[in-house]
Amino acid sequence: MEKSISISQLNFYIKRSLENDIFLMNLNVEGEISNIKYHPTGHIYFTLKDEKSRVNAIMFSSYAKNLKESFKDGDKVIVKCKIGVYEASGSYQLYVSSMNKLGIGNLYIEFERLKKKLEEEGIFSPKYKKPIKKYPTKIAIISASTGAALQDMRTTYLRRWPIADITLHPSLVQGKEASKDIVKNIKEASACDYDLIIIARGGGSIEDLWCFNEEEVARAIIECPLPIISGVGHEIDFTIADFASSLRAPTPTAAIEMVTPNIDDVLYSIVELDKRLLNAEKKIIEKNKNKINELQNSYVLKNPLNYLENKKHYINHLNEKLKSFSNYIITENRTKLELFTLRINHLHQKNIENKKSLFKQKVSELESISPLKVLSRGYSIVTDANNNVISDSSKVKLNQNLKIKLAKGNLQVEVKGKEE
Q: Which of 65, 158, 223, 257 has the fewest Cβ atoms within 10 angstroms?
């Protein structure tokens, strides 16, 4: 007889086989939702079906909290999931980690494409952000003429800043024609003398909010000369209009709160400022009173003639001091001049003596080498008729007339004989 297995063993084997299959660990499955149930724990239970088959699915709360939109029966979706087997019943189901409506994926792709394109063009640059007035008095709202979002905005501005004049520019905020209508209203509002413009819409799916992701809306926002505040959807919703606007608010109500002051705070500030001005005024008055009292009790005002007389004496005293000081300066400089003159004369006399001494020295040196000095020792100089000095007897002829130069006087001689 062949060996048999139990139901539990069979289900365990099937569970292990399916859950260990790599292909079944990461699936993308398309289908239509039916029998969807949101459990109080946060889990979502539903069935996915197509024309021929159906399969149960569960999305645990840890994944469900990341969903950006709600789902209902009849929605066509694509889920990321893995296969799991419930052993007790032998049934298998899908464990879903993410879920999007069919077509949403393409919208997200288009959103990222346009966002990247406009970023590269610099459309989101801070240079396009316009300054927002601290106390706006004329505000334009571009939104649907009906809906809770508009009512909440009205309630908020009436509570916070009722002195503002708020004008609604009714516009489509959903559908194919919505983006063109929004652009038209931006242009109309920008031609008025508003302080700012708020573009507002309540929450919705990505398809509902898609008109705020259109390129023409983004370009109209940055071309508008007025600051535009985007208050579209809920806090988790981001649109291209948010990035292009001068300010992004998480909700329509938050947009009003972000651009309007609280009138109670403003009134309190005015009261406090008034108190500070009164205190400052009192201090100034008190200070001036004290100055007046000081002047009234001052010696100058009480005894002006005595004051002037004292000043006159003081000026005379200064005049005498000036004269005395001038005489002192003149005397001191005269003494310095005399001393300087004596020093100059002394140096001049000393210089003359030095020159005389040097002259005598040079005369003595000249005399020591003078021919006349040699002649005074008994020597003489013999010259011919042409005054040529004769130093060699061989160059003299007999009977030649010569002249002899002595220390004192000259001799005219005739040569009678020679010794060589």
A: 65
